[in-house]
Amino acid sequence: MVLFKCDLHVHTNASRDGESSVEEVLTAAAAAGLDAVAITDHDTTEGAIAALACENPGVLIIPGIEVSTKQGHLLILGTTRVFVPRQDVIETIAEAKLLGAVTIVPHPFHQWRHGVGLRCREALLAADAIEALNSRYIIGTANQKAAKVARKYCRPATAGSDAHNCRFVGFGITEIEADDRSAEAILAAIRAGHVACHCKKTPLRTYTHQSWNSAIRRMRRRVPQLHHRPRRRIIRRKK
Question: CA-CA to 77 of 20 to 30 Å: which in 44, 47, 51, 214?
């Protein structure tokens, strides 16, 4: 058996809210002493594909994606396929499993971060694992609830930094006992529950700053642009 230290939830600037390049993320992962890192950008696998193309990345690459389903976010690992967003989460899980990918419900009980567990408890049973530790938290109650539910449902519990900047890669670590040094073996070990996890907190200032920026971006996307008619110029004739 081979013991891997993995961060299973990392974003690059391929995500709309990511701040670091693929190369910066991989350098940070190696510096943090990780053996593997999952690239899971929002609704795109461009970052994962770019990471797989890197020469001598320093860590094992697990390609993945964080899909915005109808009920919230879903991590899918072991694929470079892009899934249609805003589909039902159960349907997306089934589609991923047909491809042989691993599904993890991230931050399931985070109220303002698209937690699937708040809207579809069935997904916690359907997915291969539950992210019990996410480093982006304020007081940790959502993580505690996720860990409790993972135990109740007998689901493997994973950790992820959910890093949107390379400085925080490795803040969430899942230790995985795999049969060999391959992404396929890691994914099989996650399914089998050969995992242990721990994390440390992303600095509050960074978390709130990123959350505020994300909220602004969402508002700008939802609020239609107001088109003002140009004011007519009134020319008064001199008497």
Answer: 214
* Contact (Cβ atoms closer than 8 angstroms) between residue 214 and residue 42: no
C-alpha span between 80 and 207 (Å, rounded): 28
Number of domains comprising the chain: 1
Contact between 38 and 64 (Cβ < 8 Å): yes
- Residue 52 inside a domain? The answer is yes
Residues 165-194 pLDDT 10s: 999 999 999 999 999 999 999 999 999 999
From the number of C-beta atoms within 10 Å of its C-beta (0-12, 13-18, 19+), residue 109 rates as: buried
The model carries a pTM of: 0.88
CB 19 within 8 A of CB 165: yes
- Residue 68 contacts by C-beta under 8 Å, 6 or more apart in sequence? 42, 43, 85, 86, 114
Decide if 239 is inside a domain.
Answer: no
Domain hosting residue 35, numbered range:
2-222
50 close to 26: Cβ distance less than 8 angstroms:
no
Residue pLDDT, tens place only, 64-107: 999 999 999 999 999 999 999 999 999 999 999 999 999 999 99
* Domain annotation covers residue 44: yes
CA–CA dist 179, 190 (Å, integer): 11
- Helix, strand, or coil (residue 111): coil
